[in-house]
């Protein structure tokens, strides 16, 4: 990087840091100014006092707008240096890379702590500006709280030293200031890149949605604080209610987006794993939904006001607690989501305790002044069931947060000199408690809706409940009967031939486990909730009360989600049972037992039966930018980290996208493994589970999902061979000489040297691309050999031998099926004898050694291990192709290897000459486990020397496939829930707006 560019980019960084400082200071000034205005507003102000209040509010408003502009400037500067690959900045170098498309640069923006804090701050600015405009009455006390929160958050990215202590982590720090490089002269040309697991479209939209949900929890909290502060103990509820509603919807959607990302990206087999960070966000959402219900109950009958105050405060404090858990490093390795500690744990704790303590003090001071009702709640009252439902949500949240906080308890014990090693509980610990919460929520949501929308007539209520229960039990019974009698349809078993004894509901009625009865109860409760809420919804729609339907629709969505979760998680069915008896690991822990029992090995091009299907592993594929399908890696020739040449025309549905020899862009970090499925009726589909590589040591497997109407098939890889970085475990190289039509013996195979083929322009395009000069090559040939295994199955290899000036290039060819590599090492022009280098691989020897050298003339037969290799022929490059190609010339040796059952496999190692240099392009037969290249060519004798490697380890993947029944009910329920929230939010906002415009609020 030149000096002017460096100075210019550092200027952007310095400007960004200046914006951070301005935003921090202006937030403090705005908070204090709003505080003075709110203090004067507490009592009924006279005209003179009102003028002062208005003056302070104008002053505060100006500084909040300055704060907002500074925040936007910070966002712009940070994204600017990411977009322009300014790797002198630590944040850019640590989270971005040259190969990232712009949408993943957006993900890189908030991958780190500083960027995600900035995202949170950004949403607060947007919400603050909206609140200033829509609710003038509450502006001063609310915005004082808002601006104070902003000041705390800005301090997290301030990055300045005050009294010897560092305050915050500066996102604009340089590499040399961070100690990564010694000075500005050593700025890297590329970054370390975005975590491959985060290179997913959900990671572009999930964090902004989640942090908007975080930001929205501040609004009801600020209303509560403002109400207590101003002595308006009841007035805050109406304006806060629509914000609580939209906050519940968006935070819930953000959580579910994270679950769907995990479902598509991680390989634990689901969408929720009770990770501590997941839990720490899930609990505030539960409490927020509980507060929403108590606020609705208060609006209806003036009860549950104190509960609403407590729950709204608890929601925001729990958001701060989740931030502390995620960012302080206290979780250690207990969570895959937590950030590394940037030294902010002290600041985060102060942030948490400040708002928790101030809220408690303020609530305690005003507690006795908060109005309460002395009326006792009756069992048949709507408020009773709402309160019970809210209590259920709180208890469910309490169980989760206590279990999640065990690492915190360990640290507290350690601080007091005690030793505590409480381990985070397993997912089953949460499941066995939360399932009962789901049962109760479903039941209460059904009963509560009947009570909410009609007069407290016991006879009418009993009749409605009886009808709903009757329909529920009839439907549930019919469901079980169908499941037991057919084993198909709603059972979602993977095979149409499954009998009743294998039906999932047979387990329910057989008494095998209490867990199955619990599942049946949850299914029945969910069905009851759907039936009850549909009944209420029908009455509302009949009365044309569309705006009142939000609650019923949202409850239907929740019930659908519970049923979808029950089936997709509780009855997830593994199709890949290992029936071979072979253990892939001797460890005896739970994960190893699952690996041995529920995974199968697929060898390349060998169909393997699993439950209901036959699966064939078809090879490794790459993602080519601008092409709608994945492309087999053997059809691409890599010329750079993210560039390759097409070895054949790339067409899709008759449309040509790239011609042979075209340069294409690829995503090098992703390798896709093609699996072809065929069911018992002959229906076929293809899945592409992938492995993402950020480095040779860091690989992550991601599943592929085949979606059907009634279920998903979920497949991921747990092991692969060969490793894309380490390659195959080749046996020592063997060299074999052969002439055209000679036979070579390679392990159990017979290889026939069919002859050579002149490499055409497109085949030599890769060498033209990388050549350094424009010299014309002298000569190039391709030898064609046939390899026969012990079963006389034929495979073909075609190593090349190219001479340009004094340089020799002899690319090998490989029979991947045999693990056999053949190359022409030299050619004797006098005897027409070729010396072939032949090598294969061995699982016990991962180091490649020199190949075995064998001499052969055309039509000769060579023996190598258990193979016979026949030197079929030699083919020269055509003069026309030589003229079309500048600086490259070569031949391919065409070799046929006979595999099992005399199945022929073709191999074509190449021999290339480029600008006086020689290259030996190997060919690999993955199915045979053979790698072959032309080591040299004897021009006088016509003899080729092939280098051959073989391996006993065939290309394979170890994979697991699961059926996820009724998972679409879960996703559909999510949309129904959000739709219901939307209707309810609009209604609450319209109500507030009417009251505000009347001057009441």
Helical residues, percent: 40-55%
- Major sheet description: 12 strands, mixed
For the record, give the distance between the C-alpha atoms at the N and C termini, rounded to a whole number.
59 Å
Give the percentage of residues in beta strands: 15-25%
Query: What is the mean predicted local confidence, pLDDT?
Result: 83
InterPro entries: CcmF_C, Cyt_c_assembly, Cyt_c_biogenesis
Protein name: Cytochrome c-type biogenesis protein CcmF, putative
Organism: Microscilla marina ATCC 23134
Keywords: Cytochrome c-type biogenesis, Membrane, Transmembrane, Transmembrane helix
Describe the structure.
This protein has four domains: 1-194, no CATH class; 201-425, no CATH class; 445-569, no CATH class; 733-954, no CATH class. The chain has 22 helices and 39 strands. Residues 486-513, 770-777, 843-849 and 879-886 have low confidence and may be disordered. Strand 26 and strand 27 form a beta hairpin. Helices cover 45% and strands 22% of the residues. The strands form seven sheets. Strands 20, 21, 22, 23, 24, 25, 30, 31, 32, 33, 34 and 35 form a twelve-stranded mixed sheet that branches. It is an alpha+beta fold and 1001 residues long. It holds the Pfam family CcmF_C. The chain crosses the membrane at residues 15-38, 59-83, 117-134, 146-165, 210-229, 241-262, 282-298, 305-324, 344-364, 384-402, 433-453, 465-483, 516-540, 552-571, 966-985. One of its GO terms (molecular function) is heme transmembrane transporter activity. Belongs to the CcmF/CycK/Ccl1/NrfE/CcsA family.
Short description:
This protein is of the alpha+beta class and 1001 residues long. Helix content is 45%, strand content 22%. The protein contains 22 helices and 39 strands.
